What does this fold into?
Amino acid sequence: MAQREPTASAAPQREAGGRAGRRRAAPALLTAGLLAALLVLVLLSAGIGAYGIPLGDIIGSVRHRAGLGGAELDRVAESVLWNVRLPRVVLAVLIGASLGCAGALMQGVFGNPLAEPAVIGISSGAAVGAASSITLGLTFFGNWTVTACAFVTGLATVLLVYAMSRSGGRTEVVTLILTGIAVNAFAMALIGLCVFFADSAQLTQITFWQLGSLAQATWPKVLAVLPCAAAGLLAAPLYARKLDLLSLGERPARHLGVDVERLRVALVVVVALLTAAAVAVAGIISFVGLLVPHLLRMAAGPGHRFLVPGSALGGAVVLVAADLAARTIAQPAELPLGVLTALVGSPFFFWLLRRTRRRQGGWA
It folds into this structure.
């Protein structure tokens, strides 16, 4: 019996099937690659610095602390590793994961790839609290006063933006964004007043906080971020399916059973928890929540089942790498972390913008 010749459309179909197969495999490969990169960066960051610690010593010390054998290091190396390096590394992982995940959620909620947590005023609100507490000389929480004020004002700003943008029991995306822009402008004016009235020492402290840094990382600060970060990171993937439905449009999402208003409220709260805790401890660190979801969306598609947890993992990788670079590029000086992420992120985001416009004719 003669074999049937393949039709003209068979080759394109096979090519499309191959692309679909690669797209389905991409999340697993990316997850494995990000986990491997994070592990390598954590070990490098723990060992590299003014006081170098060999990789074998790091692993041996961790095993010793965990009761799995190994050996304790000498007093100086043990102190540097456990009191300086590891708190900083763990804090970078938590903050990077929080910012990356928050960026993915914001872009999903607004349906806008330019959205990030700063849009709804979290960062500027937290900066107002920090600057005010420094200028007024508040000390009611001791060394935690600046952090506590930044966290409270960051959350309060989000609630204010959301309350001001509601009308008739609904919240429109455009109104929410415009309200956030107005509140951001007002917050910057308040920060300007704080700077005007601050003395030279207070001005230096405000500037250092606004530039973003993990130089003051300690285990208590890790514990301060951990509850909010854990709650937000555990809750975020639960909304992945609804975000996929929301990406079809508000009306189709409602027809498919999604309570869009309740979803927005829940995700704004999750984003506020993730971002306010991160900003309160580390200052303003930009572009992590904007770029990481973009890159993963380009590599694995727009599905939020991977994008939300993947952005958390990618954010952790980016921030650990950025912090390692910030404290080693200009040794013995240390670059501000927020400045470094902005210096690298701005041209990279411009490249993404040009690439998308060239390939798709715009962001839509």
